[in-house]
Amino acid sequence: MQTGTKYLRFAFILCIALLLLACSWYPLKEQRFFDCSQSTPWCTSKNRIHAKPGPILDAQIHKTKDHSSDTPHHPLDPLTVQEINKVRTVLSSYPPFLPSFPAIHSLSLDEPDKYQVWAWRKGDPLPARKAQVIGLLNGQSHVLVVDLSLGQVTAHAINPTSGYPTLTMDDILEALQVALSCEELNKSATARGVSLSDLSCLPPSPGWFGLEEEDRRIIKIQCYSHRDTSNFYMRPIAGLTLTVDLDRKEIVKFSDTGRRIPVPRAADTEYRYKAQDKRAEMEPINPISLEQPKGPSFTVKDGHIVKWANWVFHLKADQRAGLVISKAMVKDSETGTLRGVMYKGFASEFFVPYMEPDEHWYFKSYMDAGEFGLGPTALPLVPLNDCPRYSYYMDGIFVSSDGKPILRPNMICLFERYAGDSSWRHSDMFFNDLEIREARPKVTLVARMATTVGNYDYIFDWEFQTDGLIRIKVSLSGMLMVDGTPHENVYQISNIKEMTGPLVSENVIGVLHDHFITFHLDMDIDDTNNTFVNVNLVKEDTLPGKPPRKSYLKVRRHVAKTEDDARIKLKLYDPSEFHIINPSRRSRLGNPTGYKVVPRGNAASLLDHLDPPQLRAAFTNNQIWVTRYNRSEQWAAGLLAYQSRGDDTLAVWSLRNRAIENKDIVLWYTLGFHHIPCQEDFPIMPIVSSSFELKPVNFFERNPILRSAPMFEKDLPVCRQTA
């Protein structure tokens, strides 16, 4: 069989390739809306509002948009199509690249100095527009800055650290082609009863462990059977791994140790709705939808500036981080002036280590942002299921390996959420014989992105509340990464203690693993001079002769002077609050204004700190870090994370032990999950979520939503089911 024939037969089944297929366009069908401003057979309103939908409603019928004429309006707006094309033109005539154009792995805005951005006002000239380019040529990483106004390269570094840039679509497809040309692979699949036409392959990243990864860019290839199911993840060909040299395009290692392990069956693995042949074993749930007869309360100006209630922030898509929030400001509840809260927030890096020492698994320790990128792996969101009606959708514009712009449509959605919760309430029956019942609805604004990195789906929510709180939530779904086994039930296992994960189906092991997501949070509370304070709760014993209490709690505040003072491991029995304050800005009572990070459910990495995956992911050694601001320190695993050795990580930067009191500082928070798989995770996992919050502390003079209005029946439409 010729290589080209194999490529055509098998390339389409590569999951990562589908996810990274950046040249695909995904126009959405026109959405229908409830319309309580007109007479309809199924929707009436006691107080009908005749409101003509504004521009933001028109944007919801979001067919593929032409971005070719976009222009930047804000210093932080992403590069436009025209700017990307100009960068490519500049690089094409750049002398070091004249013999051969490099593969472009990343091309994004080289952001202006943050002090310029804070000082900029609408109507001012934009700061110089620049692009940061990361390319690969002859096995060397090139990091360049292109000044778009000058039309020239103004900075160029080669191999600034260990590691390589994120993978490109071409990297993955070429590795697949090499693997599928391997006669040994074809023989191994056939020996297991897998037809070549049923073969699906994926490219796990190799990590870094020493000699095998030294001085060459490699990737692993592992395969599955998609016969009778679209969920090939549940049908692994166990014990079969190829190692491919990405630059030489050759196989450097072939390992086949699992021929005695059967390929799990396809029964009950399908997850697509149309492929289900059994009805759900539950009573049906009637459709639910939040309706807004006046339209949404938020606006999106100039493509990226979001205004809602008392919040204003900049929102954009990013090739590596996926979703970025910048210049988040909230109105003062007394003066109405906008005050700074956060300059920039985003998911900086992932760490997903699997707990199986076998030769086919030990290397699985993914850094999804730095190895694959969260932007290109974000497929269009599913209306009414990923995002509710009346959502606003935002596209991402990235680059392919040839430097040309590509579109990822509808990858971010923005919507208001109301789930029947209260933002505050109180009832009282002891006031002048009157019964008081006061409550206010909690309506929030959510910016959401979902990305699918291979088998796993990650949903990111940045949720803004009117009381000044920001909630950052990460939700996990998708498929387990599973291993094959000869065993169909636990009774066949002689030494169950030696298993690296439980049986989740016949012949299928769900391998134990972790997920860690580290967030970069550049907090600028009322300005850039901020301080980190550990507000520790300590037990005090009561003195003899005092009331019958034996103990009570007191607060002790510890101001972090240096980065060493601000490395925090969360402890349930040594509780603290963690404040970012501005010591120069005080409330009327003299308290410094601030925000605190509020942890929710979390997990810590238990790996040995000298374990190679943990060395590369040393940013997960603590749940909280605080570093001095440095515009080059954004990616917790380093600028070049693929096969990196851990020499350019958050942990390394923090060793400089810079002064951080009353300085421009960055808070880093790591959210973690331990995942012990179970049968309910098969064949697709129900959502599991965790979150943390950024909450005002003495930032406002009083409850900022004290005067917010309740909801009244007359303001809301009443929708009834028709016959």
Automatic annotation (TrEMBL):
Q: What class of enzyme is it?
A: oxidoreductase
Which segments cross the bilayer?
A: 7-28
Q: Which stretches make up the Copper amine oxidase N2-terminal domain?
A: 74-154
Q: Which Pfam families match?
A: Cu_amine_oxid, Cu_amine_oxidN2, Cu_amine_oxidN3
Cofactor comment: Contains 1 topaquinone per subunit.
Q: Which InterPro entries match?
A: Cu_Am_Ox_Cu-bd (IPR049947), Cu_amine_oxidase (IPR000269), Cu_amine_oxidase_C (IPR015798), Cu_amine_oxidase_C_sf (IPR036460), Cu_amine_oxidase_N-reg (IPR016182), Cu_amine_oxidase_N2 (IPR015800), Cu_amine_oxidase_N3 (IPR015802)
Sites where 2',4',5'-topaquinone occurs are at: 456
Coiled-coil spans are none
Could you list this entry's UniProt keywords, alphabetically sorted. Answer: Copper, Disulfide bond, Membrane, Metal-binding, Oxidoreductase, TPQ, Transmembrane, Transmembrane helix
GO biological processes: amine metabolic process
Enumerate the GO terms in the molecular function aspect. Answer: copper ion binding; primary methylamine oxidase activity; quinone binding
PTM per UniProt?
Answer: Topaquinone (TPQ) is generated by copper-dependent autoxidation of a specific tyrosyl residue.
Tell me where in this chain the Copper amine oxidase N3-terminal domain is found.
165-264
**Highest taxon in the source lineage:** Eukaryota
Active site annotation, chain numbering:
368, 456
Chain ranges of the Copper amine oxidase catalytic domain:
290-705
Q: What is its EC number?
A: 1.4.3.-
Q: Which cofactor does it need?
A: Cu cation
Give the UniProt family note: Belongs to the copper/topaquinone oxidase family.
Q: Which PANTHER family match?
A: AMINE OXIDASE [COPPER-CONTAINING] GAMMA 1-RELATED (PTHR10638:SF69), COPPER AMINE OXIDASE (PTHR10638)
Protein's name according to its UniProt entry: Amine oxidase
Question: What is the originating organism of this protein?
Answer: Rhizophora mucronata
